[in-house]
């Protein structure tokens, strides 16, 4: 099974200059763990995650001029639409991610979240589970 078969789409995105308060509203309204941050051409350049939102709330309290750019996660692990779902799960476990943007040619096509993976437990290959280290 491929990531494109379980990913959420269309996925909302934000830009660098999106106010943090607006991005937080989008996260909570859509119950997403993160929003892809895209440049003016729509290419993935970061993620604005729940952790980034919490960080901004704690450290930037009362500063409503701050934008997503100031707190977003810049190093983003992504996968292609043809990536095997088990590989996406391994990526999430290895890097402790709540979601993985599905990207092709730099453009965001969707988002695979932990919840998406949990909806498909019978589709995850057994060998993938065998290769995940015990916690």
Automatic annotation (TrEMBL):
The keyword NAD does not apply. Keywords: CBS domain. The keyword DNA damage does not apply. Residues 7-65, 72-131 form the CBS domain. Transmembrane segments: none annotated. It comes from the Bacteria. InterPro entries: CBS_dom, CBS_dom_sf, Diverse_CBS-Domain. This is HPP family protein. It comes from Haloechinothrix salitolerans. The lineage of its organism: Bacteria, Bacillati, Actinomycetota, Actinomycetes, Pseudonocardiales.
